[in-house]
């Protein structure tokens, strides 16, 4: 079993907020940490879980700031990635987080999964074992974690996080987030409201399912250099702009960490930003979605990032 505690170094300032084992929080009421002598008294916290085709990761999230307050603990996605195997990995990860001093049982808990997520079920499974379609995902995770768990599409979760705390902050109109990693995920927002499960990674492109040609994993599988991949991805992006005329596109997922290698080859028809929360977006958004389902509303943040390309 591969297990590592990731220090979330990509996120500037993250190290300051990661709690060491000694900095235990005591949840006095659901999702609210601590007593007044603790580091962030009364802050609303949630647990975010991000199940991807490659890794399963989770952390405790400060919902006011969208930052991680525990280490981000990660395991490789089990193979085969059956519901029980994945849920066991998630339970081990939460166990590790608990061991480091975070009491998570009362916190709102959300899990982003790579498929259409509806009423606690996963309705599609392109990058995860197909046996997920036979069981109610929410029930499996709740059984293993012994608490209520909200299920959301992984890209929708990442998009929510970027809209609330990252590159999409304060942006109205039509915003489209694309996560480019093992697959291509999409999250569509209209005036800040999510249109869930858009699945634009499966648009037809060159008579193929787009993500099989231009996802991050496809780039590696096809052994494409960044320039060649970027030009193909640019064609896909062009389709997306034609269909949706977004006011902003946010690029996220693993490939968004490598923008220096390909951004110059993209010719977007409109404003394009790179995600700010990078590897943490899915975790933060899943925790936020669970908290919001319970009535929580985060304060308006002012952390929007720069437009990096414009058509
Ligand atoms: C799935 C999406 C998911 C994306 C990124 C696609 O294959 O169909 O639901 O968001 O991969 O994980």
Q: Keywords, please?
A:
311 residues, alpha+beta, Nucleotidyltransferase, domain 5, 2 domains, seven-stranded mixed sheet, five-stranded mixed sheet, 8 helices, 18 strands, 27% helix, globular, binds beta-D-glucopyranose
How is this fold's topology laid out?
Blueprint: E1 3-6, H1 14-17, E2 27-29, E3 32-33, E4 45-51, E5 55-62, E6 67-68, E7 72-76, H2 83-99, E8 109-113, E9 117-118, E10 121-122, H3 137-145, E11 150-153, H4 154-165, E12 174-180, E13 184-190, E14 193-195, E15 204-205, E16 208-209, H5 210-214, H6 216-221, H7 226-244, E17 248-252, E18 272-274, H8 281-293
Parallel strand pairs: 4-8, 8-11, 12-17, 17-18
Antiparallel strand pairs: 1-7, 2-3, 4-5, 5-6, 5-7, 9-10, 12-13, 13-14, 15-16
Helix pairs in contact: 2-3, 4-8
Bound molecules: beta-D-glucopyranose.
Residues 52, 114-115, 124, 126-127, 153-155, 179, 182-183, 185, 199, 201, 211 line the site of beta-D-glucopyranose.
Number of helices, counting only DSSP H or I runs of 4 residues or more: 8
Please give the share of residues in helix.
25-40%
Domain unit count: 2
Instruction: Identify the CATH homologous superfamily of the largest domain.
Output: ATPase, nucleotide binding domain
Percent of residues in beta strands: 15-25%
Strand-and-helix sequence, N→C? EHEEEEEEHEEEHEHEEEEEHHHEEH
Name of the top-level CATH class of the largest domain: Alpha Beta
The total strand number stands at 18
Mean pLDDT: 87
The hetero molecules present are:
beta-D-glucopyranose
Structural class: alpha+beta
| Gyration radius over CA | 18 Å
The appropriate CATH architecture of the largest domain is 2-Layer Sandwich
> Main β-sheet: number of strands, strand sense, barrel status?
7 strands, mixed
3D shape: globular
Name the poorly predicted regions: 6-39
CATH topology of the largest domain: Nucleotidyltransferase, domain 5
Q: Ends: how far apart?
A: 46 Å
């Amino acid at each position: 079993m591969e297990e590592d505690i990731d220090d979330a170094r990509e996120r500037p300032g993250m190290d300051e907020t990661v709690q060491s084992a000694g900095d235990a929080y005591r949840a006095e009421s659901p999702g609210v940490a601590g007593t007044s002598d603790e580091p962030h008294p009364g802050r609303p916290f949630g647990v975010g879980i991000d199940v991807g085709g490659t890794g399963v990761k989770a952390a405790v999230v400060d919902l006011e700031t969208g930052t991680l307050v525990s280490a981000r603990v990660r395991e490789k996605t089990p193979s085969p990635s059956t519901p029980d195997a994945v849920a066991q990995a998630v339970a081990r990860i939460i166990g590790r987080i608990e061991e480091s001093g975070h009491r998570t049982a009362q916190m709102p808990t959300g899990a982003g999964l790579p498929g259409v997520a509806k009423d606690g079920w996963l309705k599609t499974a392109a990058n995860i074992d197909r046996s997920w379609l036979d069981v109610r995902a929410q029930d499996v995770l709740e059984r293993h974690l012994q608490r209520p768990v909200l299920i959301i599409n992984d890209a929708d979760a990442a998009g929510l996080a970027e809209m609330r705390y990252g590159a999409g902050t304060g942006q109205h109109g039509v915003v489209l987030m694309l996560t480019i990693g093992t697959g291509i995920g999409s999250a569509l927002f209209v005036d800040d409201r999510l249109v869930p499960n858009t699945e634009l990674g499966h648009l037809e492109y060159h008579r193929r399912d787009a993500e099989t040609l231009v996802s991050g994993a496809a780039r590696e599988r096809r052994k494409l250099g960044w320039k060649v991949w970027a030009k193909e991805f640019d064609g896909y992006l062009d389709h997306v702009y034609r269909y949706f005329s977004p006011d902003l596109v946010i690029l996220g997922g693993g490939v968004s960490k490598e923008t220096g290698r390909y951004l110059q080859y993209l010719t977007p028809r409109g404003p394009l930003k790179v995600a700010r929360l990078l590897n943490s977006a899915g975790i933060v958004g899943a925790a936020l979605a669970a908290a919001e389902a319970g009535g929580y509303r985060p304060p308006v943040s002012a952390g929007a990032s720069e437009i990096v390309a414009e058509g």
